[in-house]
Specification:
heterodimer, A: mainly alpha, B: Alpha-Beta Plaits, 4-stranded antiparallel sheet, 14 strands
Chain lengths: 256, 311
């Protein structure tokens, strides 16, 4: 086992013995389930009405009617629950002094950060894949385009990974889990607000910088089914930046 | 084995360590002695590479702590003040994790785990979750963690704090049994502990080393005079005068209880034989004769009196 694998294995073990993952998972799946039920019910109502009006078989764009709003809602739910997944990662190590064990062992800070980040991404990816049941079930009763769905899940994965990397960095800054959760929630919220702010600046340089920094624009493009290297680069550079910041935070903690 | 030269550590404006130098040879057991906040933990954290010194050099097993931290970490087993335990894991899971991050191979890990679980007396609890263990067992798991990769240097920060007397003796015996094959540094604020297990004591006060010596020598050096406590059965009004005539006795006075006496004698003049003979021939009925041992409090009173104040 490489050190990164060791850290991942330990973190996954810790995740699944704590009730936090189960509670968060249950809430996430329940809310997403309800929202998708509501979206599907809404779509079938509209289909019925169209059929009565036109007296023919109506073909609705389910991607637009169900999945895009659903992915947008999931994004909002993630903003609230993902900080709760990451808050423990470093804060608890600092509080319980197990950090001293890690930092006096022959493994690097980069391996610790990578291991912790990858473990929480795995937990999140597992949760996310469970929601795949929604399009799968729906595909038995309706036809829709799968490509935007694949991209939507890619968007959710990248979006979640970015939020988790923010959470990992926040957790490395404090030994208080609550503070870590609020800190990451604050940063994520800030990035979201930047998107709204950018519309106020319109097509100016400031406006385009703000809209690039916010995840809204990138996420929206991906869930529309548009794959763009610029958007992928946004997520990858964001995650890399947060990884680096977490690394710095840990070094600062040792050198203080 | 361990070379510390001119190490200084500054936390903001506070100087936690001020120009500390010492060296420890292979196989020695050395105690860091000092009150809380003296700099023991800081020194240990620097030795383990957990934090770097502000200035100065530390070499462990020939490797510089700043230049080759990975080699140093491989050579060190560290038990921090609070044992670094993941409370949700079982003892075996925890030790497996530790073995892996200490870079032991799978077979080596199994082998070492078997030995260490035996050595630290964890056989009965190896399948239990650490969070459910008593404090004594947790301390042992912490010690097992430090010993697992068989490091030549062991750094133990207050290994017996918070344990009951039986556990303290067990842990001390375990540490003593490791002497010779391992170089051990432990910190404590109990002089008795240092005397019981260590060959050398380093006393730290306000970030400076105030003494390095063997515990016995340290005790001897610090005593200007020897104090004897004597208890006899029958009261004897002339006893004070008679005993006062023994060469070497500087001062004699009545103790707190009836028929007890406190004698202050010159260091190096052992008057005990003469004293007992005299008491016995006078028929006073010798009940008890004890030498007062030097306590940590005495050591500190003496050592810190001449200490410069920290600015």
């Amino acid at each position: 086992m490489t050190p990164v694998q060791t850290i991942i294995a330990k973190e996954l073990r810790s995740f699944f013995v704590s009730p936090v993952v189960y509670v968060i998972g249950a809430i996430f799946l329940a809310v997403v389930g309800l929202l998708s039920y509501q979206a599907v019910a809404n779509a079938s109502n509209q289909a019925l009405r169209l059929m009565q009006l036109q007296n023919t078989y109506a073909q609705l764009n389910l991607n637009e009617m169900i999945f895009r709003p659903l992915f947008q809602s999931m994004n909002l739910i993630l903003m609230i629950i993902l900080p709760l997944l990451t808050m423990r990662l470093f804060a608890e190590e600092r509080k319980l002094r197990t950090f001293e064990l890690l930092l006096t062992s022959p493994i690097g800070v980069n391996e610790i950060v990578s291991g912790k980040f990858l473990s929480v991404v795995m937990v999140y990816a597992g949760l996310l894949s469970l929601t795949g049941l929604i399009p799968l079930t729906l595909s038995a009763y309706a036809t829709f385009d799968w490509q935007p769905i694949y991209l939507g899940y890619l968007a959710l994965l990248l979006q979640g990974a970015l939020m988790l990397s923010i959470g990992v960095c926040a957790s490395a800054l404090t030994e208080n889990q609550i503070i870590a959760a609020f800190l990451s929630f604050g940063v994520i919220l800030g990035l979201w607000v930047l998107g709204a702010l950018s519309t106020a600046f319109g097509d100016t340089t400031v406006g385009s910088i703000l809209s690039y920094l916010s995840f809204t624009e990138h996420f929206e493009r991906l869930i529309r089914g548009l794959l763009n290297a610029k958007d992928l680069l946004y997520y990858i550079s964001g995650i890399a930046f947060m990884w680096f910041a977490a690394h710095q935070a840990i070094d600062a903690y040792r050198w203080k | 084995m361990i070379e510390v030269q001119h190490v200084t550590k500054q936390y903001g404006r506070v100087k936690a360590l001020d120009d500390i130098s010492f060296s420890i040879h292979k196989g020695e057991i050395v105690a860091f002695l000092g009150p809380n906040g003296a700099g023991k933990t800081t020194t240990m954290r620097i030795l383990t590479g957990f934090m770097p010194p502000t200035s100065g050099t530390v070499r462990i097993a020939g490797f510089d702590c700043l230049e080759e931290p990975w080699e140093v970490k491989k050579h060190i087993g560290y038990l921090p003040e609070t044992p670094p335990l993941y409370l949700e894991l079982t003892v075996r899971e925890y030790l497996t994790f530790v073995g892996r991050i200490k870079r032991l191979g799978p077979e080596q890990l199994q082998e070492r785990m078997r030995i260490i679980i035996n050595q630290t007396g964890l056989t009965e609890v190896q399948g239990r979750v650490i969070g459910h263990l008593s404090r004594g067992y947790r301390q042992r798991v912490g010690l097992a963690q430090a010993l697992l990769h068989n490091p030549p240097v062991l750094i133990l920060d207050e290994p017996t704090t918070g344990l009951d007397p039986n556990q303290i003796i067990e842990i001390r015996d375990l540490i003593k049994s490791l002497a010779g094959s391992h170089t051990i540094i432990l910190s404590t604020h109990l002089l008795a502990e240092a005397t019981a297990i260590c060959q050398k004591v380093i006393i730290i006060h306000r970030g400076q080393i105030v003494a390095i010596d063997s515990p016995e020598q340290l005790g001897v050096k610090l005593r200007q005079s020897e104090i004897l406590h004597l208890t006899v059965k029958h009261s004897d009004p002339d006893l004070v005068e008679t005993l006062g005539k023994i060469p070497g006795v500087m001062h004699i006075s009545h103790g707190p209880a009836p028929n007890t006496y406190v004698l202050e004698t010159n260091i190096g003049d052992d008057v005990r034989e003469e004293l007992t003979n005299l008491v016995v021939t006078r028929g006073a009925g010798l009940l008890e004769l004890t030498t007062q041992t030097v306590s940590l409090e005495d050591v500190f009173k003496v050592l810190t009196k001449t200490d410069k104040p920290v600015d």
